[in-house]
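worker-03 picked up job from queue 'complexes'. Input manifest follows; two sequence lines, order preserved.
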Amino acid sequence: MLRQSLRSVRSVAKAHGARAMSSYTLPPLPYELGALEPVVNTEIMTLHHGKHHATYVANLNAAMEKYAEAEAKKDVAAMIALQGAIKFNGGGHVNHSIFWTNLCAPKDVVAPAEASPELAKMIDAQWGSLDAFKTEFNTKTAAVQGSGWGWLGYDKAAKKLAIATCANQDPLSTTGLTPLLGIDVWEHAYYLQYKNVRPEYLKQVWQVVNWKNVAERFKAASA
Amino acid sequence: EDSLSAHNMGIDLPPLPYAYDALEPKISKQTLTVHHDKHHAKYVTVAKGMIDGTDLAAKECKEILLEAHKAGNAGLFNNAAQAWNHEFYWNCMKPGGGGKPTGDLLAQIEKDFGSFEEFTKQFDTAGQTAFGSGWAWLSWDGSKLVVDKTIGAGNPMTDGKTPVLTMDVWEHAYYLDYQNLRPDYIKAFLDSLVNWDFVAAELAKVKK
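worker-03 finished. Artifact:
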């Protein structure tokens, strides 16, 4: 029944010259589920990727299909009503897709200076040291009320790095910054292992931060 | 004992109204232990620290959170409201709870929602669509019962409503027992945990 209604939505959309529907897909993890042990365990990774992120993708696709239907009917009220679900699930998909690449097995971690001397120099220039940067990042991220993310972002206009936090699944793009490194502090990201002790999770997570990926994003953003 | 008289709660950490394992298997002993002794306790400690030495220290929790909200004091509001919300939440549950209420409460629900099933549908939806950390509420708005959802520490009292039932949907409320399956937790809450006696007493108080 779902397939039939999808087909009819697609043909309605096409008939009205609406854009072709794109389908969002769950990206595979760049490593095994257990790769981040003991910092983030297999159980968390299995749920976080296979359930939470997968659900954002499924719900984003569902919302976009409804949106296409509303667009085809020029139902602006319906389109507006769907924006919350698109922001939430779309943001969730964007954020988690970045997150998985921001992490790697502890043995594969390199120091920022090795990944990008330029990035390391900028961190030192703005915060005094890598440790001082991590301290400020962790303090601000631990203080997120409820669900959200801590980010290292790049301000293209000012040509500077910045630490920012976002609520719920709001993507960093809503702040004007380009995402380099995100740390998920929704409770599902750490609760099974760290329970209420978010600061301990934040202390440990640096052992799995993939500075090579952060450096790639920095290079692309600052080009 | 089913009605918290006058909500004279202040900001302190009351014990749970039941044993830590009383809501097993719907909510585990481990969840209640961490949720009450760590999460709820921290909100109380932080809120107390914030009001210490101020006029607010002599006031009730409800007054404190409303004044913090009015003053735009997000830090105090978040902690005081969470202290209030959690105490209310513990009382909204009991072992062997859930199912359908009776008497005046049921009549009021049927009047304001059309049916009990419509109420549970709205309450379930509110819990499921609180995108992030939040709460689902049944409140009296002055003339009828309404369902709301709030984000973070939000509480319908800031809109002038009087809560009669709440359900915590922050992930810490259910993650150890249900992981990502928030809908299953909500079903367990409605089917097996809601303390309708408490809810009925709260409604009776506000309707007086």
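worker-03 released lock.
The interface with chain B takes residues 47, 51-52, 55, 84, 88, 145-148, 167-169, 186-188, 191-192, 195-196 of chain A (CB under 8 Å).
Strands of chain A lie at 148-155, 160-167, 178-184.
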